[in-house]
Description:
It is a single chain. By secondary structure, this protein is α/β, with parallel strands linked by helices. The chain has one domain (44-242). The protein is built from eight helices and eight strands; from the N terminus they run βββαβαβααβαβαβαα. The strands form two sheets. A six-stranded mixed sheet has the order 4-3-7-5-8-6. The longest helix has 38 residues, at 222-259.
Amino acid sequence: MENREAPVTQNSNQAAVEIPTCPKCEKRLELCFCAELPEPSKTKLDILILQHPQEPDTELGSARLAQIQLSKARLNVGLSWPNLTRAWQGKEREEIPALQPKDWVCIYLGNAGDLKKKINFPIQESIPKGGEEIIFVDKKGNPLYDQAEARAGIKGIILLDGTWSQAKTLWWRNAWMLKCRRAALLPKSASLYGTMRKEPRKECLSTIESVALAFDSLGEKSEIGNQLRSSFRKLLQKARDDRRLRSDRPEQKKQETQKD
């Protein structure tokens, strides 16, 4: 796993000031609620989150929040890795058996609208109950005929974290991903981000929501996905409260000056 330096802010009248951040979630202390999080959930599936090094959203980004709540999750930052095993190892480079891409599914950067049109009745019938929001696709992005067979033997999930263009960069710079299974998310509900962050497509979700949805659709306990979503709601509410507080400060100072 990667650790990045704490962000700094630059004031025109003073030297750069380091903003205190939590070493666990890497959020500003005003946004941190790590003390309220339960013990990491134990899952059947491994989760590998590959984050673009220029992913800009340190305030509302959810990848680290997802990773610290799961016992079998890793978050590594970079642009490319020679193979899946090295991507999982990151900088730790511990000795592990070679990971097989065929046993992993990469959440594919497809177009949900186009994909829905291609899902006919036989394909719908092959989807396991509760798994309708994730569709396994072939190399051309078409839904596989037997969805149940496509899900058999999955050991891990790969998610790409960054803007839409950054995620595409990660996809094309890591050729070994072409050997993984592919699946696209078809969420029934819009992202919890709401108006706080604009998404390029209405079906786009945050990383933590994508993990939760993939877990729900691939047979993990529903409590795990629910906890991930609950923590994301908490982050968003703290961010809203913090923004409101910051916006009120200049007005408060103005009122105090007028009273004097």
